[in-house]
Design a protein that fits this description.
Strand order of the largest sheet: 1-2-8-3
Order of helices and strands: HEHEHEEEHEEEHHEEH
Low-confidence stretches: none
Largest sheet: 4 strands, antiparallel
Number of strands: 10
Radius of gyration: 17 Å
Helix content: 25-40%
Bound molecules: iron/sulfur cluster
Strand content: 15-25%
Shape: globular
Distance between the termini: 40 Å
Structural class: alpha+beta
Number of helices: 7
Number of domains: 2
Oligomer: single chain
Length: 230
């Protein structure tokens, strides 16, 4: 099989991804030094970015445990999918490097509780045409809203990138996520992790880590799709 964007997309969706797009490595020129695909693997010429959808109504449960469960499990699911994709591509002679969906990562600034992944997957997904970034700092996709978990593999193959998403994300004047954040952690561009973490990664007395807050995801009119379908 010839290696091109379409053949890679077919392999990745056949293994279970709900969304898949390709970003040429050159599109990451604006990423911080040390956090571009070629900083991770100098042979990288393209990035395949994919996503699984999350069970949507977990967002609206009265208790935070279902959403925490969905978040935890789907991170593992996407990591498993990433491994499957990586091994399948390798078996086909397509050199690649898998990227974790969430952690681990190395960069940590303790004084402001700031961690940075080796590659920002939401920016990679934007560059691969999978959606647009909202003021809540989440990627929103036309079909699945912000209820997706993203994964990626770096590819040695020099592939044609997909077009960026052309739809509008945040309606003009919407500030719902900023206004509803109980920690005032959002400024429309970034999230202050130091303010957000105590709520979004809350440790119970028993030691469980719960997603106690995900208000910025939930209040978004585009939470489940850009069309606002629920
Ligand atoms: S998860 Fe909660 S605390 Fe964190 S930015 Fe969103 S609304 Fe604010
Ligand atoms: S709540 Fe409004 S401003 Fe915030 S991400 Fe959603 S659409 Fe954008």
């Amino acid at each position: 099989m010839a290696t091109n964007s379409e053949s890679i997309r077919q392999i990745i969706t056949s293994l279970g991804a709900d969304l898949c797009g390709i970003a040429h490595a050159g599109r990451f020129a604006g990423a911080p030094e040390g956090f571009k695909p070629i900083d991770i693997w100098d042979k990288c010429k393209s990035v395949a970015v994919f996503a699984r959808r999350l069970p949507a109504q977990s967002l609206f449960a009265e208790n935070c445990v279902p959403y925490t469960f969905v978040n935890t499990m789907m991170t593992q699911e996407v990591d498993r999918l990433t491994m499957q994709i990586s091994l399948k591509l390798e078996a086909l002679g397509i050199e690649n490097v898998p990227i974790p969906s969430d952690d681990p990562y190395e960069h940590w600034e303790a004084e402001r509780s700031y961690g940075r992944a080796i590659l920002s997957l939401k920016h990679a997904a934007y560059l691969a045409g999978l959606g647009v970034l909202g003021k809540n700092t989440l990627l929103m996709n036309e079909q699945y809203g912000n209820m997706i978990q993203i994964g990626a593999v770096l590819l040695e193959a020099d592939l044609e990138g997909d077009s960026l998403a052309s739809y509008e994300g945040c309606p003009s004047g919407c500030q719902l996520c900023l206004e509803s954040c109980p920690a005032a952690a959002l400024d429309g561009d970034t999230v202050n992790q130091h303010l957000c973490r105590p709520l979004s990664n809350y440790r119970t007395e028993k030691g469980y880590i719960l997603k106690k807050c995900y208000e910025c995801r939930k209040v978004c009119p585009n939470a489940l799709s850009i069309m606002g379908k629920r």
